[in-house]
Amino acid sequence: MLPSGLGGAPARAIDPACPAASDERVLEVLRRLAPRPPRLLLPSHRLHEDLGFDSLALVKTVVALEDALGVELPQERLHELRRATVADACALVRLAAAAPIGSGP
């Protein structure tokens, strides 16, 4: 059973063959949780510097992404989010979608 998604709706597992759909869902989460949301969210926006995500906000965002998208983000890569861009966050979710849940070191 997948966790709840945005707004309490059941999460839908993302299709790694359709990156545009997963990217849009990542953008929805980032827009909703960004401490300093811009009018237009660009792939080049940096999570920390441009959008204001501190460590606690990033942890909340990781949980929200996992819940909304039905993926498990690789724990060994989460520290990279502090320096990541929106495009990097989308790529990390696509990577997680391509890996079986629970896989990793």
Brief sketch in words of this structure:
This protein has about 100 residues and is mostly helical. The protein is built from three helices and no strands. The protein has a single domain, classed as ACP-like (Non-ribosomal Peptide Synthetase Peptidyl Carrier Protein, Chain A, Orthogonal Bundle), CATH 1.10.1200.
Topology:
Layout: H1 19-33, H2 55-69, H3 86-98
Helix pairs in contact: 1-2, 1-3
What this model shows, in words?
The protein has 105 residues and is mostly helical. The chain has one domain: Orthogonal Bundle (Non-ribosomal Peptide Synthetase Peptidyl Carrier Protein, Chain A), CATH 1.10.1200.10. 41% of the residues lie in helices and 0% in strands. Helix 1 packs across helix 2 and helix 1 packs across helix 3 (86-98). The longest helix is centred in the first third of the chain and has 15 residues, at 19-33.
- CATH fold-level label: Non-ribosomal Peptide Synthetase Peptidyl Carrier Protein, Chain A
Distance between the first and last residues' Cα: 24 Å
Biggest sheet record: none
CATH superfamily: ACP-like
Quick one: CATH class? Mainly Alpha
Net shape: globular
Number of domains: 1
- Record field, number of beta strands: 0
Judged by helices, strands and strand pairing, the structural class is mainly alpha
The share of residues in helices is 40-55%
Radius of gyration over alpha carbons?
13 Å
Number of helices: 3
For the structure shown, list the relevant keywords.
disordered N terminus, single chain, Non-ribosomal Peptide Synthetase Peptidyl Carrier Protein, Chain A, mainly alpha
